[in-house]
Batch of 4 targets.
Target 1
Amino acid sequence: MAKAELFQKEIPKSERVFYYESEEDDPIQTKEQEKKEKVGLPDGYEFIPKNIFVRMYSAGLFRIFWIFGQWYERRYWGVKVHGREKLKKLKGKGYVMYANHTNPFHDVFGPAIAADRRIFTIISPVNLKVPGIGKLLPYIGGLPLGSTREEKEAFNEAVDKRLAQKKCLVIYPEAHVWPYYTGIRKFPAGDKSFKYAARNDLPIMTMTTTYHKRKDFGKGRELPRMEIYLDGPFLADASLSEDEKRAFLAKKAEESMRKMAKHNTYEYFEYKKKGKK
């Protein structure tokens, strides 16, 4: 079934089952994902544009993106955000937000409406090839991972600069999208994705999307609505080594997201491990 169809229309219950071997399996494969190892960044790619007009265009486009996201999230998915008051503790400093990865459309807009400032999201370079929106992603905050040494250095410099500018960096540590999944999977990269907060001595937040029945459930409207739970901030002791900070933050994030995932009340998709009855 095409990727978009999974998230934008009702699916018969008999088709809403995924069989997996490990939590690192990718239930949804697209042509772009299959080619991702071959996708690199354009020559001379700028993670932070130098041209003032490009920066102005980016700021304006993000505003339009944010306004549309407010309408889309609340109108289409019935989103409610809990715990936004916790962001008041982050005034005057940048932070990193870790979120569960369960809906590619919501995962683009959800953090933008949940956060209290402009967001920048770490993405795969393959996303730049997505028809239509791919070329716009860098202007609305997408930070594609580099593959060469020069690209990685430029990427890290850009991340550190955005955090120094007191922005919000968004990361999906589960890596792959599992449609409407109500649990929290292990992070394939372990605590590596927590290095950005660790090396900058900054706090992290978690954003956990949960699923619930709609009021008109059973009347041809079984697609779930969403509720977002923010938790944190969590900050590692400055006296710890960078490795110890990463481990501490990774543990806090996983514990927090598993705790918030308990708010799920509706399983729209069912996940079954292969060979397990």
Target 2
Amino acid sequence: MSTAYTTLIDANELARHLGAADWCLIDCRHDLANPAFGREAYARGHLPGAWFLHLDEDLSGPRSGTNGRHPLPDPDRLAHRLGACGVGENTQVVAYDDAGGMFAARLWWLLRWLGHRPVAVLDGGFQAWCAAAKVLTSELPRAVPARFEARLQPGAVDAAYVEQHLGKADMALLDARSPDRFRGENENLDPVAGHIPGATNRFFKDNLDAGGRFKQASVLREEFAAVLRGRDPHRVVHQCGSGVTACHNQLAMEVAGLAGSRLYPGSWSEWCADPARPVATGPQ
């Protein structure tokens, strides 16, 4: 493989590699309110050669009631699933959705967690592909299985880590949820409203421009610099409601050249499941 794409790829660049043997496309479309949506949308039409992975069934593990709404999947099980889609050690993976990268970024993060670097999100997603008059198909891809081994990387922290570092200068929590949910208003997904004390709100949709594509790297760098206020990117821990949109903020930081941040996968849905953990409301 020549150039590896590790953050974003645009529709025209992807089209030039369509059908390449060492490339694999993954359709990550999903609707939190309608879990059947992604599979149905995929059946109606998807990018040629793309496989479908489901957020709940493939990109998340079993829920216990205390480990959040989208706990991390078993790494070996996910590696086997990716191998069945043809992802090998050097395969360039491109993930896409129709929600600004909201779900595709989850797969981007998971692959990096498994030790796979050549993975990118289609900038502008399904809409950008269609707007460029690119072809769709309802045909299923032909399986050419590959061997994919999980080599776990230290990119995640758990609830105990977050608790131990609350209020300390060596952790900067970034919450990717909408401002109203962060403040504790209009909570529609989790049983408790509010946020982890000390967190700063950075709504993941603020990473996108009016056309649904990621903002320029220089703009993202400036915006995250304002949020971080001089704190080292390596101290950043991303969280959201369930560890999905938080990956979008990490991807945006990587696009901006701010590498080294980590994810708290359990996020708010895990945090608030324990009534002993502190909860904050309001803008701070």
Target 3
Amino acid sequence: MKLNLYSFIPKQLLTNMAGWLAEKKAGWFTHLLISGFIKLYKVDMQEAEYSDANAYPTFNAFFTRSLKPNSRPIVEQENTLVMPADGTISQLGNIEQNKILQAKNHDYTLDALLACDKQMVSLFQNGLFVTTYLSPRDYHRVHMPCDGVLREMLYVPGSLYSVNFKTAESVDNLFARNERLICLFDTPFGPVIQILVGATIVGSIETKWEGVITPSRHGVLRRWEYPAVGKNAIKLKKGDEMGCFKLGSTVINLFTKDIIKFAPHLQSKTKVRMGELMANASNINHELTQDNNNDNTE
């Protein structure tokens, strides 16, 4: 019944209103809103770069707050990948041919998730996936799990269902129905995809290289392609910030077959923090790693 009622909520209007309010500099009202949110969701402000709620001119400035230096140490070993965000593992495991586990008794397909991009789909069939849910209290900047060179980005318009454990267990094809930003990277571990999934009252999704991607929300799929080399290539190191959510949401990572193994302690409902060990790899393209290191020292 709750789900049926939720389907009638004007999610787009609600999201637009929340995004508008979150960007407003409303003085005491903004600070009251932030203080109430901190109390309601038990946000740990001691790890924030600015712990005082009054230090943030807008709600979005608070929600996308930076952390104190070294509060998220990055696992450094070269054969490792790290968690891209603070949150809770929703699901992880094998992609069975074309199917990804959303929740018990709920699967969805690579085709649907990747907007029927046949080239991307073929890369990740029988690979691995991990879905990380970011709760309202979490740090909402998203980082790189490994060194990478951005090759392609795809904005897929869609619905704005809330994304949490309840909706994952109830809404079919949840992550393939919601709007999302798909980023394909060349990495030392082969192609890696990082997907930022939108949700109700996610005011916008941003990346470090293109700025705000949503809320254009014209229902049009958009694609960007990037060079592998040269001054216009977008190269990021493991642990570098790649984007953020202004309210929301969920991060999905896809990996190709037989390259990595997830850390054995990770399972559904495991709480994680950005920079912690996500996976180990046996095959590494040292050439790409070296190129990335050379670019950063020039």
Target 4
Amino acid sequence: MYDVHYHRPATLDDALNLLAGADDGKILSGGQTLLPTMKQHLAAPTDLVDVRRIPGMRGIKVEGGHLVIGAATTHAEVAGSAEVRQDIPSLASLASGIGDPAVRHMGTIGGSIANHDPAADYPSAVLALNGIVVTNRRQIAADDFFTGLFSTALEEGEIITAVRFAPPKRGAYAKFPNPASRYAMVGVYVADTASGVRVAVTGAGENGVFRHGALEAALGRSFTPAAVEGVATPAAGLLSDIHGDAAYRAHLVGVMAKRAVAAALG
């Protein structure tokens, strides 16, 4: 076992100072990825900075026509929120299908998108809904936030404080889950937004979540399940593993997209 120092700062400035002063400090939010990684000795941070009790980091509110979700808000809180169910029911539905009850009561939206696991659900919501990631320094558009596998636009000393969403006209998320982990082998979020139809795919891309331009164009012309049938997804650039190869995932993208559109219309 190795030594690690646990901190529970009272303010965001305290958290930033603790991270700056640590040899290898990590932010602890839900810990659903970080703690298992530490248990397997794949990571050995010197300091854990728990941001869950910092005022303003947790909670859901409607502000200026946007739904604002604090970064330390759990999946269970998103799933059960009256505001989310009213304004973006597809986001509440997505949150309700993450992992199991234990994961949903510990994992957080900020931790999920900061980690950018290629099979995580939330990145597809942020990208499809054209969300805005709010940090202690700036606001980052969804299209600029996810930069690669387990990689984002976050810089050293930058902490996600909230995510802002404009409610879409309609939308839905459908995923084919791994039966053990409930991670998405393929998940497709379809949103008809003020700026047009946006389609984000998770669980399939070698570089993590991505927008599907061909599906967006087809659904922009006709927002129907039938419009999805004529759109092929190339296998190049998709993941292959013991659960399914790239060709299988390419097929699943179409299947999940069709289900998502049907759910959005329903």
